[in-house]
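Exercise 7. Predict the structure of Multiple sugar transport system permease protein from Microbacterium thalassium.
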Amino acid sequence: MSSSTLAPVAAAGESRGRGWRRYRSSTFYAFASPWIIGFVVLTLAPIIYAFVVSLTNFDGVSPIWRFIGFRNYIEIFGDANVWAALIRTLAFTAIVVPLSVAGGLGLAILVNRRIRARGLVRAIFFIPSVVPIVAVAIMWRLIFNRDAGLLNFILQLFGGDKVTWLVDPYAFYALIIMMLWGMGGGMIISLAALQDVPVELEEAARIDGAGQWRIIRHIVIPLISPVLYFQVITGVIGTLQILVQPLLLAETSTIASSVNVPQSSTLYMVEVYNEFFYNQRFGYGAAMLWVFFIFILALTLILQRISKRVVFYQVGTEAD
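Solution. The predicted structure, encoded as tokens:
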């Protein structure tokens, strides 16, 4: 076939290829458009609006406000309450996240064994993670009650004294206990990961004389490390943003009176809440949120970088 005959055929093939690529591209954006529109309207636009508000002295009520530049941001770095709330939040996260992940893994290993009524045991551990947070807070307020609470009753059985759990300094520890009660959600995720650990590896390790702890440390944990990392990264982000739990656990009759939240459980988001709805400083509160957003983003990137050294990803054998 001559070159003059091949040229129109090649041009027609290239034209059909471009048409197919345009069809695939338009189909992709047609299916993705609901999410893209939702992201722009419900997420991106509020973020930009919050940044604009953070540059003003807007109080949330008065129509009279003015542009003050980065004055709110400068004030944040000199605000002792903000720094105290941030340090308190980091301490809270450093305690809750490792204990939740380790506790969830321990429970998963426990219920992964062949025991009687295994499904019922799994359900019992998982139920706390699906109970509404308001019901959980009410239950724990009854448990932490100084005079009629179950916890003080148990303490007195062992000769201890009554503890006023919902005020300083014990409110911080009460909040930690309530958060750890819901570690059943992590247990389910870890349990699903344990199901994929090859039994042959564990049996080979036992033949070589490895004990249960060594099998968990050197085989199980490396194999499920991506799942554990997922729990850590989502746990850190979620715990840093906790707001409702301290408000519900506080000794107050209404959520609006957040002034009654004990100082020891005033985490960063509670401080933001107070600036918004108690001090009516919307501009300052928006600036605090932006600073916190950048802080969480930086912390997430650091954790992601660390994960490259400690998380083991399996390579697909079929591709090899």
